[in-house]
Amino acid sequence: MEASGFRLKLFLFLFLAVMFLATVVFAHLENLDLLDAFYFSIVTVATVGYGDISPRTIEGKILAIALIVTGVGTFLEVVAGITQVMLRRRDKEVRAEKLNMILGLFFSEIGTKLLGTLSEADPAPSSRVEVFSTIGDWDDQRFKKEMDGVSQHPYRVDAVRVDLKSLKGFLERKGDFLLRLLENPIFLEHESFTELLRAIFHLRDELLNRDDLQALPGPDLKHLTGDMERIYGQLSGQWLLYMRYLHNHYPYLFSLARRTNPFNRTASATIHD
Known about the structure:
By secondary structure, the chain is mostly helical. The chain folds into two domains: 3-88, Helix Hairpins (Orthogonal Bundle), CATH 1.10.287.70; 92-259, no CATH class. The chain has helices at 3-29, 34-45, 58-120, 125-132, 140-149, 164-173, 175-183, 191-208, 218-249, 251-259. The protein is elongated and about 100 Å long.
């Protein structure tokens, strides 16, 4: 639990305890019903003081003084804490919106094509490709189910089925774009996506440092396969997160994303019906 959250709960508990105690004691000392006693306690700690109810007994006046001293500070702490929580929640929503905008740009420029390339080289396409190809028909519960199990699936790539020369040229052309993404401070809070970018950069560097990709020895091809499988798994998880976000918030963007689904071999942006 964050310190601010614990502080808010603590002062909220103290405030409710003070209000409960003040209401009961005021009702007894001033011969008020519980509603009037609660009302008087509220206007006292809120420093409103309408003047329609005031303590008449000495004990009631002493209690009012104690309530002002203890209750006002507690009340202000609660108000400040709630305001802080609301502002932080709003800031979190704004940052999430910005993050997903950048994720959309990433998949438009790199992610969708790269994921399509790796999924086409999946030696067991029925395991994930057939599942993800139906994503356009999912509801939120199905998204949640698949996201919960995405890390458990072994993502495999048959490197022989990958056009390494074409992949090398593609990643080389996107080098500046990837670098700008890594420099964006908003991704400092999104560790999993940052790890994905590092994995893509690593594969890019591996390919750029090989002059001949046509006749790689077995151990070297196995090494590149591991790099691609790492990206395949991480990229699939990020794609699911982004697709769920579009599904829940931007149906028109989700419409295009489902029509360009990298797991669907017959996908087409063109609408035929």
